[in-house]
């Protein structure tokens, strides 16, 4: 798979000539309002740089969030985020894709705050057909409160890949042949939120939110959406072979990317449901496709 060095991809399809454009390497600023809208507590969102950067704030009364205007089947989605600085225990900053309904599909980045001086935990999860419980947790190899970093999802018919900057940290392969549902027919919206979850987020709820440190602020920019948008007349996007993220080189990681993911697993992973024999005495079938599980 080609490496990811962009924040926003503008795809030009040369279908007549049979040439498929590759992702550009030059970042393009896309204002928040083009693809997104606030969802609640509008007074807790601030806008900067002509809408190219926003801040979400959390206080003891409410958090806030935003969502994409459209729903998508497959694509590449990313956000540049700078996490809540200082004592962030009890807070959760989230970036995820989700469909509607009880048997929903969902692809999650959740950043779990911590006491000052203790590292953030990044939790990822995948829901298919309403079933989740596929948590993996890592420490990051940098301080996510000091600067913006890119968090991305690549989703096609073959795999879901989670990226931190250019580094793949997790792959969820299509394992329908093993009896595991895979997201392919429920359009998802993109969401981000900042909220209080001190009943579970930090040390299982032992560390509570210190409201004397409020408001807690997370910053966002690089509002990238490159997906097949659902329309009224087409609930399935027949994208195979027509978009850069659907090409053969994006059906699996390459050798270098697998080595990078193994580096994350060996040095920074603190929990993988595939290896949890207390909660799951029988390993889930999709874990057979996880090289490091």
From TrEMBL:
Pfam families named in the record: Glyco_hydro_16, XET_C
Q: EC number(s) on record?
A: 2.4.1.207
What function does the entry list? Answer: Catalyzes xyloglucan endohydrolysis (XEH) and/or endotransglycosylation (XET). Cleaves and religates xyloglucan polymers, an essential constituent of the primary cell wall, and thereby participates in cell wall construction of growing tissues.
GH16 domain sequence ranges? 26-220
PTM remark: Contains at least one intrachain disulfide bond essential for its enzymatic activity.
Query: According to its UniProt record, which protein family does this protein belong to?
Result: Belongs to the glycosyl hydrolase 16 family.
What is the annotated signal peptide range for this record?
1-21
GO-annotated cellular components: apoplast
Record-given protein name: Xyloglucan endotransglucosylase/hydrolase
| UniProt-annotated glycosylation sites, renumbered to this chain | 114
Which processes are annotated in GO (biological process)? cell wall biogenesis; cell wall organization; xyloglucan metabolic process
What's in the keyword line of the UniProt record?
Apoplast, Cell wall, Cell wall biogenesis/degradation, Disulfide bond, Glycoprotein, Glycosidase, Hydrolase, Secreted, Signal, Transferase
Q: Give the PANTHER family listed for this entry.
A: XYLOGLUCAN ENDOTRANSGLUCOSYLASE/HYDROLASE PROTEIN 8-RELATED
Positions annotated as active site in the UniProt record: 106 (nucleophile), 110 (proton donor)
Compartments where found: Secreted, Cell wall; Secreted, Extracellular space, Apoplast
Q: Name one GO molecular function term.
A: xyloglucan:xyloglucosyl transferase activity
């Amino acid at each position: 798979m080609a490496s990811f060095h962009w924040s926003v991809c503008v795809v030009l399809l040369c279908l007549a000539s049979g040439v498929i454009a590759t992702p550009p390497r030059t970042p393009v600023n896309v204002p928040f309002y083009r693809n997104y809208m606030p969802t609640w507590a509008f007074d807790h969102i601030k806008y900067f740089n002509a809408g190219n950067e926003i801040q979400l704030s959390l206080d003891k009364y409410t958090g806030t969030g935003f969502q994409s205007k459209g729903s998508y089947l497959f694509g590449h989605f990313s956000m540049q985020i700078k996490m809540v600085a200082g004592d962030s225990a009890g807070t959760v900053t989230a970036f995820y894709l989700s469909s509607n309904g009880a048997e929903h599909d969902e692809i999650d980045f959740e950043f779990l705050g911590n006491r000052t001086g203790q590292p953030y935990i990044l939790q990822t999860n995948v829901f298919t057909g309403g079933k989740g419980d596929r948590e993996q947790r890592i420490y990051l190899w940098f301080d996510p409160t000091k600067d913006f970093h890119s968090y991305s999802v690549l989703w096609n018919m073959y795999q879901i890949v989670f990226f931190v900057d250019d580094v793949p940290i997790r792959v969820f392969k299509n394992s329908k042949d093993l009896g595991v549902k895979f997201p392919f027919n429920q359009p998802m919206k993109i969401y981000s939120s900042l909220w209080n979850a001190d009943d579970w987020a930090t040390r299982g709820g032992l560390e509570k939110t210190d409201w004397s440190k409020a408001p807690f602020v997370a910053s966002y920019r690089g509002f990238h959406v490159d997906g097949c948008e659902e329309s009224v007349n087409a609930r399935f996007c027949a994208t195979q072979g027509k978009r850069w993220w659907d090409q053969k080189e994006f059906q699996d990681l390459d050798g270098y990317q697998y080595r990078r993911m193994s580096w994350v697993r060996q040095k920074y992973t603190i929990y993988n449901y595939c290896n949890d024999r207390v909660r799951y005495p029988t390993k889930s079938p999709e874990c057979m496709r996880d090289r490091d599980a």
